[in-house]
Amino acid sequence: MNIGQKTRLSRIVKDGKVLLLAMDQGMEHGPVDFNEKNIDPEFVLEIAKKGGFTGMALGKGVAYHYMDQFAGSFPLILKLNGRTNLVPKDSIYSSPVASVREAVRLGADAVGYTLYVGSPTEAQMFKEFGAIRAECEDYGMPTVVWAYPRGMHVKNEKDPAIVAYAARVALELGADIAKVNYTGSVESFKPVVQAAQRCKVIASGGSKQEEDKFISMAKDIISAGAAGFAVGRNVWQSEKGLDVAKQLHKVVWGK
Ligand code: FBP
Questions:
Q1: Coil, helix or strand for 145?
Q2: Which of 88, 128, 202, 250 has a CA between 20 and 30 Å from the CA of residue 16?
Q3: In whole angstroms, what is the distance from residue 155 CA to residue 162 CA?
């Protein structure tokens, strides 16, 4: 890791822990995830600003239109690839849509990249990420990999052995942080964290749940050894998003 990567990463990882807010769902799922309030990126970015998040994951368009207003409020993790939900998932593929250079120009502290491990398009995605990872060395940019087993060969995306495999792939490809789906229990998630070793494992939040259930799941994830979370809908779809953020902060850092 070079000095730029270390410096940028230190803004996102605090005492070994990470709490990211994600809002790339407009691309990944479509506006169906939003209501009248949270369809406005400003509403979500205000939560990132006030909620104690150590980073906000955005696509380049939202970063381009809104980040000047929030400069210095939180680190930006720029998602460099994306796809829509309209294309069938059998051969799922996420296309590069931005470069590391653009991330630097937008003031990013890390780049985010989705890898559909096990997809028939895996080889292409690995190749494209490999080139991006090499550029990250040049620019001093850390990487967060959304390591998602998916596609026609993956029967169960939450199979603990397969999620652990995806987390290990993130380590093998040089990611600093691997974002994975929770496997559903502390015991099944421990091997996922173990597989990734020095690549930090964070869990995604998933679709909106009752607040108590979500926080109890978050506690399990941390007790399995995860470094934290990258959450979206469970925060900004909540009527009490800042309250959920506060509780998550407590789960992650104990304060
Ligand atoms: P959520 O907490 O809302 O699930 O957000 C996490 C995230 O990884 C987003 O960054 C991304 O848009 C989405 O989930 C991907 O979801 P899916 O698993 O449906 O592709």
A1: strand
A2: 128
A3: 10
Q: Tell me what pLDDT residue 173 has.
A: 98
For residue 82, the cross-strand partners are 95
Q: In the prediction, which pLDDT does 174 show?
A: 98
The per-residue b/e assignment along 134-147, b for 16 or more CB within 10 angstroms, e otherwise, is ebbeebbbbbbbbb
Task: Give, for ligand 1, the residue of 204, 211, 229 to mutate: max count of ligand atoms closer than 8 Å to Cβ.
Answer: 204
Distance CA 25, CA 238 (A): 15
Confidence category of residue 176, pLDDT binned at 50, 70, 90: very high
**How confident is residue 185, by pLDDT bands cut at 50, 70 and 90?**
very high
Question: All domains of the chain, ordered by start, with CATH?
Answer: 3-253 (3.20.20.70)
Cα–Cα distance measured from residue 45 to residue 68, given in angstroms and rounded to the nearest whole number: 11
pLDDT of residue 78: 98
Around ligand 1, the residues with Cβ closer than 6 Å are: 22, 24-25, 28, 57, 146, 204-206, 230-234
Kindly state the average pLDDT of the residues 143-166. 98
Residue owning the nearest CA to atom 12 of ligand 1? 25
Q: How far is the CA of 150 from the centre of ligand 1 (A)?
A: 13
Q: Which tens digit of pLDDT belongs to each residue from 228-254?
A: 999 999 999 999 999 999 999 999 999
Which residue's CA is minimally distant from atom 17 of ligand 1? Answer: 28
> Cα(82) to centroid of ligand 1, in Å?
11
Let me know: does 103 contact 141? Beta carbons within 8 Å: yes
How many angstroms is it from 148 CA to the middle of ligand 1?
Answer: 10
| CA 232–ligand 1 middle distance (angstroms) | 7
